[in-house]
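> tool_call: predict_assembly(chains=three)
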Amino acid sequence: MPKVHYLNASYGLKSWLLTTDHKRIALLYLASVTFFFFIGGLFATMIRIHLLTPGGFLVSPETYNKLFTMHGVTMVFFFLIPSIPAIIGNFLIPIMIGAKDLAFPKLNLLSWYIYIIGGCFVLYSFSTGGLDTGWTFYTPLSSIYSNSAVTPAVIGVFINGFSSILTGLNFLVTIHTMRAPGMTWFRLPLFVWAHYATSIIFVLGTPVIAITLLLAGLERMFHLGFFNPAMGGDPILFQHLFWFYSHPAVYIMILPAMGVISEIIPTFARRPIFGYSFIAGSSIAIAVIGFLVWAHHMFLTGESVYAALAFSLMSYLVAIPSAVKVFNWTSTLYKGSISYDTPMLYALGFIGLFLVGGLTGLFLACLGLDIHLHDTYFVVAHFHYIMVGGAVMGYVGGLHFWWPKITGRMYPEFLARIAAVVLFVGFNLTFFPQFVLGYLGMPRRYHSYPPEFQALNVMSTAGASILALGYLLPMVYLVWSLKYGAIAGPNPWPATGLEWKTASPPPTENFDVTPVVDWEPYDFEHRPDLALEPGIGGLLPAHGDD
Amino acid sequence: MQSQLPLYPEQASNFAPQVDALMVFIIAICVFFAVAVTLAIIFFLYKFRRKSTGEIGVAIHGDMRLESAWIVVPLVLALAMFAWGAVVYVDFRRAPTDTLDIYVIGKQWMWKLQQPNGQREINELHVPVGQNVRLIMGSEDVIHDFSVPAFRVKMDVVPGRYNTLWFRPTKTGKFHFYCSQYCGTNHAIMGGWVTVMEPDEYTAWLSGSSGTIANPVLAGEKLFAERSCLACHASDGRGRGPSLNGFFGGKVKLADGSTVTADEEYIRESLFNPSAKIVAGYQPLMPSYQGQLTEEQTLDLISYVKSLQAEPAPSTGAGATPSQGTQTTGKK
Amino acid sequence: MHRTGELYGQFETLEQQKDTAQLGMWIFLVTEVLFFGGMFLTYTINRHAFSAAFGIGGNTLDLRLGGLNTVILIMSSLTMAMAVWAAQVGKKKRVTGFLIATLILGGAFLGVKAIEYKQKYDHHLIPGSTFNVTYCVNNPSSCGLAGKQLEDERREIEEAIKAEENENPGSGLIALNAHAQLYFSLYFAMTGLHALHMVIGAGLLLWLIAQSFGGRFGPGYNTPVEVTGLYWHFVDIVWIYLFPLLYLIDRHN
């Protein structure tokens, strides 16, 4: 490890809370996002325990409704949306493009404080009566009928939106103007392309939900009638405005994870990624088409048949770029030199789970099937496959992949592989039964259910306990590795990106001298500096299956 | 009762086989792709596993033919799925004309349903097998959703407007219905049972049931008089508003030149937002009844308007009668 | 991150730093467009739904003060543009002068706005329990209404109540008050949000003025002036949309 790096360049609480170093801000996010993940996970655990019996034996209906609402709000707005961009993206984008920092370092710190302030409002709502509107805040339930602490929660989510906007803005500008000499657009790592697409959604979508929640909050506080049919308003207008952001928000969660996977696969297959420009282009295509599918959440609100046809068609179109990515990742394995290190296991797990999540999206985009599947557990299973199976697998995989870069130390490989397998198995056991439950007709957000659904619910809860173990395991050994992990060296895998050219952990300025990029992305052939000869990549674990 | 671990719900309406067939079609496509990709990955993982520490793979950057193939083929299949789904959906959204109309009101947290003869039920719905049934649904408070998995039908119930859904039960028995749109504390118990009966049993049930029978047409007639609707909507057509005799179900020419069908939604809109669609030749004089009629009173008025035939108003016998049901059973 | 002269540590050249700042501001303005856009959309939908009440609301606004503010703001955009120009051609003293002029004009705008708000408060037009759209016609002396003007106002309100009666028989006045309150909710939300942007702009100007005293901004380095200029023009343009939407539609006196 280098003597001086970003972690020990200065000490004291102030050096962290007033830092403008993107790497330190990333770690601030890591701590706070993990905190929210714990809270959301706690709610999820209680939900699954409650549903063990048809009557539900843990909590009252009212409490149950608050649990799933708070689970959704916490996980969507305070874990999934910031997880990869604000932690891994924040840490890596400047290093990957050869910059010393993001374009606006102070703004970056401000984004974190905004996130914390928004989080405090939401926690205040949770601790003073909770929230029972569903994370979707549908009017008029949220604006008039709910008796829970809706107002602080809405304010919290509203404030948090500006954190996303400023992060997206920072990324867009950084990627445009801060690239090192030689780092052309088509030499950008696909992780950066994915974040470019994500940032477009941040910048264009988030202001709309901000203003929508502001109006809903004003309606609740001052009894106005924007969305209240009793006063001439339209509750469906709220849904349109809400989903105009919240559907693209799904892509905010999944695109960065796709970026992570696009880094991991070529590294562990040790060959250039198949169809670089198609993977990069499909990210942009998803971001653009993703803005034109929002009303597929509303096929059964009574919206016009023609609108439903158009939105169904667009929803099928947005599936194509995702399919293109999966085919390209698969082809990247062809004639590679594949090792089964932990990040690769996560990447493969991601492909499997995302495949299921993406393909089940085809069922829901199908107008005829959505009549039956809308608002059932099928939907719950589908979006958990995308958000947890996809986004969280990508996030945890990315954390492992860049852990040596972030901390300078390796995680324990054996335990990490076990955790990856446990997560994969636990996840499928939790959520696959929910597809069947949904097809059988079990509606979402039910605190009790008819007895014929019990067997599948018990399976799901059993899976959730395995899943919980799968999440606890990495938390334990990753913390352990901070002190006891093997020293990683600058490029343990080895990988081709610019981030692996600097020390682990990197110095505050990221590079001692501004790097000049003269190689193509994911090119292992013309990189003598990677020293790919037997015996030299000494930190590579020996593979018993050779 | 179903088995402990069922995989699909009972098929009890005309939509059930259609939706299930669609499901099988999409499952087949998805399983094909999932299996193909999974097998390819497993094969590559084994075949191209790393054999020595410093080994690198072969530099293959892409292939335009492959890229085109896996853009075009999924696109074609996606369009096929879209088209088939659209056909089922359009069929679902366009109810046939010979339906048995049942009014449904959702409120936190119960369903009130009303048969054409005024027979009212709570969280129970009785329908004859083989008859096209249409539910005309409104909400008194938040958004609800009426869902019958065995029929594969579902529709949001939105305050301030009517949504409709239709189905034709194909099997007698009792089937669960649920509220499927989260609506607050007791969302999970806002459900009940649909009982599908043989037509003659249904007729017997209708006449013999001990439940409250309020005649909606009579109630509507009373309201029509009480609220002085008659002052303008005189049956001779000489009032300040159009005559409503034989009005329902016909095409109405509007002041702006367009035409609408005089259905439940139009009557409702005219009650609550009268100036929105003015009948050609009349002035926008009618006051709004927003906030002055309960959902049930609204339905009573609609039932009455529906009962007004071209001849002077009869006082009973609105909507479809059960005997019509037997005529339409032949269609599958 | 260290700073060398005007060059912040994360940048290689001043030119790069300038491009970055400008692009950042443009992207920020794009998000602002979408932010205000959601509000404009809601205003438009409600204006369409409750045109009588919104007409009354619009008519209570003071056209002279609104017009004056429009002129003030356009003037301030001019002085702002002049400040940028002065910096680019190196007239360092004038930069300070034009910035101060812009700040004074911005302050004047906010002052006029405050007078308007005060007027609304005196006329019981702040949404809430004291809201009463008929206050002025009932207490003409406290609103300075008399003669023909009073009669006009009275007639307008009567017409609006009649229009609302059509939709809400027997409760026209209540409905008018409710819908006029919706108008003023949107009025205060939109102008308030705009004024907040002005205040932020004024803060930026203060900082620029303090910096410009030492002759910091010249042909070599004027990025903060340019970027603040972009922001200032945007806020100006928002007002150019707000003014007709709030003050001018259905104006008939």
